[in-house]
Amino acid sequence: MRQHTNPSVFIVSSLVIIAFVVLGVAYTDPLLDGATKVRDWIGTDLGWFYVLATTFFLGAAIFLMLSRFGSIKLGPDDSRPEFGTVAWFAMLFTTGMGIGLVFWGVAEPVTHLHAPRSEELAETAPSPAGVGEALGLSFFHWSFHPWAIYIALGLSLGYFAFRKGLPLRPASALYPLLGDRAFGWPGHIVDILAVFGTIFGLATSLGLGTLQINSGLTQVTGMPNNSLTQSIIIIVITGIALYSVMAGIDKGIRRLSVINLWLAFILLAFIFAVGPKLWIVSSMLTGAGEYLGNLVQWSLSFPSPLADETAATFTTGWSIFYWGWWISWSPFVGIFLARISYGRTIREFIIGALFAPVVVSILWFGVFGGSGLYYELFGEGGFQDGDEASAAFHLLDALPLTPIVATIASVLLIVVVAVFFVTSSDSGSLVVDTLTNGGDTNPVKLQRAFWAISEGGVTLILLVLGGTNALGALQAASVVTGLPFAVILVFMLWGLFKGLAKEPKPGVALKKNGDSSRSKVDAGRTARQGGDNAPKEEDGT
């Protein structure tokens, strides 16, 4: 235990996970009710903090990209990136939100069309006049702000782990503020919160992905949509994820991510080719204009129900929920981003993790969401008659396709969802293992297997025995962890700015006695549970 784990984090995290699974199965409805009430209270009374925090993260990312700090590398000055640009982007995108885009790509814009943020549009909803806002709000929830949140943690960890030699764990980013205490109980609490948010956030997403795969299989093959089918899906996907994570980042996660990026691109191009092309282009541009034109206003918006009840309800129900959800996911995505970004400059990191995914998100929602809005308004509609998991497949039914082509497209969509499922699971397993072993970036195979199986097990037990209500309780509980972690992220950025302030200006050499901050950091190395943090050639990682 002491050789390969951080016992405090590992044991406490495991007990919390087991306790929540037991409660989720035995007391599903009370747990859902309690977690939902806490989440709603945070959204109503403390949503303003989410608004300010996420806007601060976005502003900080843009500042660092444009400042002199942008040329600083996440590693020694002579370090080189481990992965090529395409592979790096494929991994960060598929891990960050790939499966969510497929799930919500059609469902969210259609929902906003029927229940808009604007009171004026709400009076006539659904109507073509609401298309721009429906897509603009979808872009708002899935573009700059979530990736700025991931960058806040990923950049801080990448800097302190690869440039300053600290373990790859959230507590390391607090070292400039806490000193050696960052590796004591305060750091353990931060790491436990990160494990909680990662495991339960992943289990929720994997559960939603399972429901979507089951919906597609039912449509294509007639396979029943029940707990037995969902159990088989989870077991098969977990098995593939287990193989991938055992193969390591290069042989497993990287290859799957690149394959899935191309499959998603083929699917996107196909939907555009057979869909209402002129409408898609028009609505996408209109939505992008709506998004960029209202970016500052929406970013700083926390309306009172006394002033605008429609906007207030929408903000707490959608935007504040999303900010909490992305923040709860930030340990998982941020640590993985840091892990694969060794050798890149801060400017490269921010451009790749902030602007490139935004372009993909706009294209995805523009094509899938735009097509869904067209057929909802001018076709047979009915996208809201079923659940969100079936919305993308409902779009394939609405497109002018022959039965054979529609079946092939449905199978391709199922494959894309399944591979997104796998890449999320295996990268999540690697991250949780890193969190519970003290920051070693090359954990032993047995531990990787343990966490991969644990994620699948948590999803299986809650979805099959607890049903969708258990998943809802899990999601609400994950969002609740976003509040304390939002505070932690603010302090992490504070620590990052303190560390960067000690970096020499361009053209100024370090003094012979070296950077004083580096000598101070050496004291924290004894807290590590693993070996050298620099990338190693072990099992492809």
Automatic annotation (TrEMBL):
It is found in: Cell membrane. It comes from the Bacteria. Keywords: Cell membrane, Membrane, Transmembrane, Transmembrane helix, Transport. Residues 512-525 have a biased composition (Basic and acidic residues). This is BCCT family transporter. The chain crosses the membrane at residues 7-27, 47-66, 86-107, 144-162, 183-208, 228-249, 261-280, 320-338, 350-375, 401-422, 449-467, 473-497. The lineage of its organism: Bacteria, Bacillati, Actinomycetota, Actinomycetes, Streptosporangiales. Its main location: membrane. Residues 505-541 are annotated as: Disordered. Pfam families: BCCT. It is a multi-pass membrane protein. Coiled coil: none annotated. Belongs to the BCCT transporter (TC 2.A.15) family.
